[in-house]
């Protein structure tokens, strides 16, 4: 059974925010090679899958299986070697730099190591998430337009950290810093949120809280989330679908609803991990 911690809440949330039929990410025979000749390495090998609006997809795979490379393609940061796909209408294989930059503005990114500026306040860190839509560099909280500061505070409230707005970011725990990372990613009002191992540096409790938060922000905004991680149980609790990668190939692509944990575990063996 998939009914695990948060499972009931998740199902309720999913019921209130049905997944749209619109396909926002279509990855189509995407191949990425690094290097050439004897040092050539195929990081992604004819990867294909679709993601619909509002879906939360967990990307599972061992280190080196291609998760980060795949997320970077969706973010328009890498160019396919062959094949490609479409993200929010942008063709990954043919788009020019300006189009990719425009795509990136509609995509939020959450990092494993948070990447906050430790000496700045929490609120100012969240404000930096709006830099893509502002001109020029910013120095100090009050160099941001008031509307931006207010929106940043709203997002902090949403992730439960409004009381920490004026603390230095480096005084927060890892779990709190990642919440700030999510608030910052929301500042550009993204359509897609990519999270590259957002819980890999966190303890189990904080990990669950961050996954719950990603689920909540997805449901509240019809936001589409792709999140790489290693814990199959977190994927089962909080994602709609699991896509498993092994050596750059998709080896599983299953919904988490209506499929037993045992069946998922049998499929998960395909990614090459030991018993969980
Ligand atoms: P994961 O995120 O699942 O750990 P990655 O996408 O980081 O996997 O890496 C997939 C493979 O591609 C690995 O073998 C990695 O060494 C290689 N790779 C990733 N980025 C580069 C790069 N910029 N140059 C050369 N090889 C790379
Ligand atoms: Mg990675």
From TrEMBL:
Keyword set includes Ion transport: no
Domain ABC transporter positions: 25-272
Record key words, sorted: ATP-binding, Cell membrane, Membrane, Nucleotide-binding, Translocase, Transport
Bias type Low complexity, positions: 1-9
Organism annotation: Streptomyces zagrosensis
Residue range from the parent sequence: 48 to 323 of 345
Protein name: Phosphonate transport system ATP-binding protein
One GO cellular component term: membrane
MF annotations from Gene Ontology: ABC-type phosphonate transporter activity; ATP binding; ATP hydrolysis activity
């Amino acid at each position: 059974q998939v009914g695990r911690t948060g499972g009931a809440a998740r199902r309720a949330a999913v019921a209130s925010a049905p997944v749209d039929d619109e396909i926002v990410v279509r990855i189509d025979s995407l191949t990425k090679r690094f290097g050439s000749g004897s040092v050539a390495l195929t990081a992604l090998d004819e990867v294909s899958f679709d993601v619909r609006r509002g879906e939360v997809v967990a990307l599972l795979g061992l280190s080196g299986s291609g998760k980060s490379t795949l997320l970077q393609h969706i973010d328009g940061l890498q160019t396919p070697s062959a094949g490609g796909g479409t993200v929010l209408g942008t063709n990954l294989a043919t788009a020019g730099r300006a189009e990719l930059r425009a795509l990136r503005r509609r995509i939020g990114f959450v990092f494993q190591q948070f990447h906050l500026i430790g000496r700045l306040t929490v609120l100012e860190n969240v404000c930096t998430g709006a830099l893509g839509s502002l001109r020029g560099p910013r120095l100090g909280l009050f160099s941001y337009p008031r509307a931006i500061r207010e929106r940043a505070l709203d997002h902090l409230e949403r992730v439960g950290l409004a009381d920490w707005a004026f603390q230095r970011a480096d005084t927060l725990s890892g779990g709190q810093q990642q919440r700030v990372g999510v608030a910052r990613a929301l500042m550009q009002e993204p359509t897609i949120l990519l999270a590259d191992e957002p819980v890999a540096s966190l303890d189990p409790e904080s990990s669950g809280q961050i996954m719950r938060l990603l689920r909540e922000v997805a449901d509240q905004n019809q936001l589409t989330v792709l999140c790489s991680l290693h814990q199959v149980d977190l994927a089962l609790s909080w994602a709609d679908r699991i896509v498993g990668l092994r050596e750059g190939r998709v080896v599983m692509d299953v919904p988490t609803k209506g499929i037993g944990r045992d069946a998922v575990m049998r499929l998960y063996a395909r990614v090459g991990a030991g018993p969980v």
